[in-house]
Design goal:
The protein is mainly α and 366 residues long. Helices cover 68% and strands 0% of the residues.
């Protein structure tokens, strides 16, 4: 039953344009999956124990502990809590798409393919990424200094939920460079170079503490299984990391050609802040290329880029002059399926199958 609904929602999304009913259906479907999940990934080993003892788990981000404590005080069992949090997160993600001008229905259809179901596995990052998406939307869709205040508040909240959201700080760079004069830009460049040098010097510690958490530390130690990291896994992740910014650049270039501004510089293409912001952020994430060879599942970090890029892909069918390639919805569906296949092919039985074939109905309230 859930498999059928999953496929139908993806297919229906191809024909919807900012449909509130469809968007509600996707949000409800994902929330129900979160509620019924009792066996996929880290349900029993991480998330349920954390919820039952929010402040007793070592090295858990404090924002998530506070959120779990709030859910327990509201009388929710963990699965009911997951239902509510998933609904809130996807409402925020839809708001992101709405603010940047995307076809929210098609964006959510793409999200279902990838990283939709994987988001329910790496649950904290999913929630944090949705909050972070609204943060960058405020940065790109508003004017004046208030947008920086809104970005800072939402960004801080997202980081408290999952530290890896720090990669979204790249979104600030274009705005800062445009705000400062020539001397200011030079100072910013020097400061960035100094920070980068410090990060490079301590890259292993930073990868473990901020990005890779405890799992990556085992891969960094030769005595604890570093040989389990395959070259193919690293090359695969590197290829996928490059694929999204290339496609985002092609999308922006195509939109500029429609506007007749293609001969200018990239930031003079006459596109909105969101389109260029998504493009810049995905290009900036290429700095992670050296790290994708550390673990075979380093797609955790690139996922921020593709989650935002889905909105850019969902803008393309809105163009007045359509051409059969970049304005074709099937192209972006295919891209998302490529990500889904190469990333979850080896975890299909442990992730997709349990989520779409639940064996019981867990309690909603404690």
């Amino acid at each position: 039953m859930l498999w059928t609904l999953y496929v139908l929602l993806i297919l229906i999304g191809l024909f919807c344009n900012k449909s509130k009913a469809y968007d509600f259906g996707v949000i409800l479907f994902m929330s129900v999956l979160a509620w019924l999940n009792t066996s996929a990934a880290d349900y029993s080993s991480v998330y349920l124990p954390t919820y039952l003892n929010p402040f007793g788990i070592y090295d858990m981000d404090m924002g998530w502990s506070w959120l779990c404590e709030l859910g327990a005080r509201c009388g929710l069992y963990y699965n009911g809590f997951a239902f509510v949090i998933t609904a809130i997160a996807l409402v925020l993600y839809r708001e992101f798409g709405k603010r940047v001008g995307a076809n929210t229905s098609f964006m959510l259809a793409l999200f279902l393919i990838y990283p939709g179901l994987m988001s329910l596995v790496q649950f904290r990052q999913f929630v944090a990424s949705c909050v972070g998406s609204v943060a960058v939307a405020c940065l790109w869709s508003s004017h004046g200094k208030k947008r920086f205040v809104a970005f800072a508040a939402l960004f801080l909240l997202a980081v408290l939920l999952h530290k890896s959201v720090v990669v979204l700080a790249f979104a600030l760079i274009p705005s800062i460079l445009c705000t400062f004069g020539k001397r200011g830009r030079m100072l910013v460049t020097l400061a960035a170079a100094a920070i980068f040098a410090g990060l490079l010097t301590n890259w292993e510690t930073i990868v473990v503490q901020i990005f890779g958490e405890m799992r990556t530390s085992t891969y960094l130690s030769a005595s604890e299984g570093a040989t389990s990291v395959s070259l193919f896994g690293g090359l695969r992740n590197a290829l996928l990391l490059v694929l999204v910014p290339v496609l985002a650049w092609l999308c922006c270039r195509y939109m500029a050609s429609i506007k007749g501004t293609l001969g200018r510089g990239v930031f003079e293409w006459g596109l909105g802040k969101a389109e260029l912001g998504i493009l810049f952020l995905n290009i900036a994430l290429l700095v992670l290329l050296p790290f994708v060879f550390l673990t075979n599942d380093f797609m955790r970090f690139e996922r921020y880029g593709i989650t935002l890029a889905l909105a850019l892909f969902a803008m393309m069918p809105e163009l007045n002059r359509r051409e059969p390639f970049l304005s074709c919805k099937a192209l972006y569906v295919a891209v998302c399926f490529i990500f889904a296949y190469f990333y979850v092919a080896n975890t299909f039985d442990s992730v997709y199958t349990p989520l779409l074939n639940p064996t019981m109905i867990p309690p909603f309230f404690a």
